[in-house]
Amino acid sequence: MKNKMIKEYTRIQNGLFAKVSLENNFKMEEILRIAGVDIAYWEEKGFHYGTCCIVVINFRTKIVIEQSTSNGEITVPYIPGFLAFRELPLVMEAVEKLTMDPDLYMFDGNGYLHYRHMGLATHASFYLNKPTIGVAKNYLKIENTPFVMPENETGAFTDIRIGQEIYGRVLRTAKDVKPIFVSSGNWIDLATSTEVVMACINENSRLPIPVRLADIETRLARRNLISK
């Protein structure tokens, strides 16, 4: 069963990859609302559940202007490299609850930095029809390629190059903190992805504000759902 799923999922991802563009389809001044997306899981009585939280901020003021949550049973098994098929239903359910339309989505996870360049941020873009960015806390090692640690300075970065291609970027958002791993999702280039991420950093975290707040909300939502 799992082998059949992998074959079908690979076919779908390869088809979508042909439509990926690592060029901006917008102007920076058009970006007013940025959504951060995160998902948390738990298991109960042999069943797997998840909750997705989306937090939308005003890109200029960094103030939260809306948030939504969805939760439910997870029926797709965890298969490395195919996380989008497991998480997208919850993501889209949370998106449908928003009353406003974000201009850009930022995911707690990867985008182009993926075995087939189809991390959740990239995959989800085709359903959202919006530019997306992947922001991961941990490194997804591909083809056993290590990353190069950037200098210990705010905004320092090194590119993740695998073969002759750049998959993403190791970005130190503040001095004396661990770096994060940024990759384009779709319809945005890596330089702009980095610029947007750095513009959403404050003194509270190494993570950009939308992703950090979405991460906090998913943990709270999971805790509340488990307690019930």
Cα radius of gyration in angstroms: 17 Å
How many beta-strand elements?
8
Q: What is the molecular shape? A: globular
- Mind describing the biggest β-sheet? 8 strands, mixed
What is the CATH homologous superfamily assignment? archaeoglobus fulgidus dsm 4304 superfamily
Helix percent band? 25-40%
Strand content: 25-35%
Structural class assignment: alpha+beta
Mean pLDDT: 96
Low-confidence stretches: none
Q: Just name the CATH architecture.
A: 2-Layer Sandwich
In CATH, the topology is named archaeoglobus fulgidus dsm 4304 fold
Give the domain tally. 1
Compute the separation of the termini in Å.
Answer: 33 Å
* Discrete helix count: 5
Mind explaining what this structure looks like?
With 228 residues, the chain is α+β, with helices and mostly antiparallel strands. It has one domain: archaeoglobus fulgidus dsm 4304 fold, CATH 3.30.2170.10. Helix content is 30%, strand content 28%. The chain has helices at 2-17, 83-96, 120-128, 190-199, 209-227; strands at residues 33-44, 47-58, 64-73, 104-108, 132-136, 157-162, 165-171, 180-186. The two termini are 33 Å apart. Keywords: Cytoplasm, DNA damage, DNA repair, Endonuclease, Hydrolase, Magnesium, Metal-binding, Nuclease. Belongs to the endonuclease V family. Its cofactor is Mg(2+).
Outline of this structure?
This protein is an alpha+beta fold and 228 residues long.
Topology:
Blueprint: H1 2-17, E1 33-44, E2 47-58, E3 64-73, H2 83-96, E4 104-108, H3 120-128, E5 132-136, E6 157-162, E7 165-171, E8 180-186, H4 190-199, H5 209-227
Parallel strand pairs: 1-4, 4-5
Antiparallel strand pairs: 1-2, 2-3, 5-8, 6-7, 7-8
Helix pairs in contact: 2-3
